[in-house]
Amino acid sequence: MTEFSFTCTGVRADRYAAGPTLVFRLRVTASGDVPVHAVALRCQIRIEPARRGYQPAEADGLTDLFGERARWGSTLQPVQFAQVPMMVSAFTGETETDLVVPCTYDMDIAATRYLDALTDGEVPLLMLFSGTAFTGTGGFRVEPVPWDREASFRMPVATWREMIEQHFPGCGWIRLPDDTMDALLAYRSRHALPSWEATLKALLAGAAPPASDPLRTLTGTTGRTRP
After folding, report:
1. Are strands 79-88 and 36-47 parallel, antiparallel or unpaired?
2. Where are the alpha helices (DSSP H) in 70-177?
C-alpha cells in the first residue's frame, strides 16, 4: 500500500479572492514509484493554543475563550479553524499543491476571536488529513489515506492580519439577529442617518452618561445630598 506524507511549506493571503481566504502550500509525498492518478483529501485544521506564549495584552483578549490565565493549564484546548476538501492531481513520488481555506471575520467564531487577540508571532496549526487515493500502473486501485496523516505548521500572525486588512480595512464585523437589524434600520431611517457608523455613534451617545453632573460637583456623589 502506498504511504502518504504531508508537509506545509508556506501560506499567503489570496488578494484576489472575493472574501478572506488563506492559501496554504502543501507538499504531498507518496512512497515508491507507483503513479498516483489523483487523491481526494479531507483536511481539518486546528489551532493549538498551548504551543505558543502570550503577552499580557493578548492574554486579556483571550479571557472570554480560556478564562483567567491561572486556569489555562486545563482550558487551553485546541480550537477548530477549518475543514476543507481538496483534490490532488496526478503525480509520481512528490508534488506540491495549494490548499485554499476560506476564512471569516465573524467574532462569534472561536478561531476568529483567538486570532484577533494576537498581536505578533505565529499561530501553531495542526493539519489532519484523510481521504482516498487512486494509484496504479496500467489501471488504478483505490487506497485509503489513513486518518492519522498530519502536518504541523506555524502561520505568521501578520499573514492573518494582512488577509483581514485586504477585505475589512480598519473595520470590525459583528453578526446580529434579524429583529435587531430591523430595529437598527428603522432607527437609522427615522433619524435620517447617513451610515451604520453614524447610527451606532448616535445610539452610543444617547446611552452615555452626561459629561458633567451638577450634583456630583456640589456633593461629590451622584443623586444624593449630604445630611
Report:
1. antiparallel
2. 72-75, 110-117, 157-167
Q: Give the residue from 205, 199, 164 showing the smallest Cα distance to 185.
A: 199
Q: Which domains does the chain have, with CATH numbers?
A: 4-167 (2.60.40), 178-219 (no CATH)
The one-letter code for the residue type at 213 is D
91 secondary structure, DSSP code:
B
Do residues 12 and 159 make contact, with C-beta atoms less than 8 angstroms apart? yes
3-state secondary structure of 112: helix
Helices (H) and strands (E) in the chain, counts: 8, 7
Nearest to 100 by CA among 154, 6, 20, 169: 20
pTM: 0.80
Predicted confidence pLDDT, tens digits, the chain (227 residues): 899 999 999 999 999 999 999 999 999 999 988 899 999 999 999 999 999 999 999 999 999 999 999 999 999 999 999 999 999 999 999 999 999 999 988 878 899 999 999 999 999 999 999 999 999 888 889 999 999 999 999 999 999 999 999 988 887 777 788 999 999 999 999 999 998 889 989 999 888 766 555 555 555 554 444 44
Q: What's the start-to-end Cα distance of the chain, in Å?
A: 90
Residue 176's DSSP bridge partners are none
